[in-house]
Amino acid sequence: MLSPADNELLCRVEGDAPMGQMLRDSFWVPAVRGARLERDGAPMRLRFFGEDFVAFRSTDGRVGFFDEACPHRRASLALGRNEGNGVRCIFHGWKIDVSGKVVEMPNEHRDPERMCAKVKVNHYPVREAAGMVWVYLGSRAEPPPMQDFEFMNLPEGHVRILSVDVPCNWVTSVEASLDDAHVGILHAAFMDILKQRRPVEDIAGPPAYEVDLQPYGFQATVLRALPEGRSIASSTHFAMPWFGFVSTGSPDAPGFTRRALHVAIPIDDYNYRQVFFSYDVHSPISKMFGCVEEYDQDNFAPPLGGPETYWGQDRELMKQGHFSGFPMNLTSEDTAIQMSQGAIPDRTHEALCSSDKAIGFMRQILIQAARDHQAGKVPLGASGDVDWGRIRSRMTFVEPGENWRDNLAAAPNLRVPAVALT
To answer: 150-407 architecture in CATH?
Structure first.
């Protein structure tokens, strides 16, 4: 369990909260699918860390990312006209080009050029990779290197993205991505469907965790006993500050090369944006892992209700044999559980067990990173010398007498000396 002070430090991201400052200053944010921003199309409102922004794609294809409020009288630039490589406020016609400079001021008659040059517009560096627009929202004059994950360099069609906004704190979602113990229980109905399609090992048994700290976060290896003395080892990776890489393969299906990661981006203290990346290093993919039905790519598995409706749970479906009563997909089950834990769970009253080992490490690492940033130190994962492209979750069988570390040694993420937590 955490103390009240540590739980606040871990979860709060708005204003001058240390965690929010560390996240903004040290890491790039996957903000929006690039396809949602059309050339000269409508600007899009976005919210992160309790602040409001607007993004648009200019006439020449570049992306602008500004504070939402027009610097003149604070009208929303999301209402603006996107034209001629800039966005024009419809209130008084001020136009801001894609680089963040005020270039037209129709209501200034004395010296518009001088006035345009004096106005400061908060605009933010952006880059596009893996179908996403990434933005740096921090205060550093020179942004840190953007994490260069394996999926960012694949051909078009090899990456699929889903997202959904969820009304609870972002840390709850990061915890879920590291909680292998719930998969065979909460997602039992989906696992039954999956077993009908391809070989999948029984993961209902209790997992044993081994955690190896890494320069990017840690690798959490889950070990489960199987019949006849052998076991199965599956690695999950927590990559700073909000990435959870999970295995979607099976040792019996070596040709199944689909991989996945979960990202939880803080919208504010009480809401987060869940982004799922599904990718295949060898082949194009057409459907997201974990989907049973069709979906809205930008509002995947929206919350089905609150406590007054038991978060949309279908008890009649449960009577018919469905385990959880949330039939849409994996995320609808996760979303309901996370919302039921509260907007910010009270972690001072938890009764943790051995399967929560990875979650405990994640909390320690994030809290330490916030404290390091406060002290003027470089947080874990923000030094710029991490080889992010080597992170890849794997799954393998371990026969009696074999060492699971040796069996996972073929994974591209090479082990390095442990990083000490202070």
So the answer is: Alpha-Beta Complex (3.90)
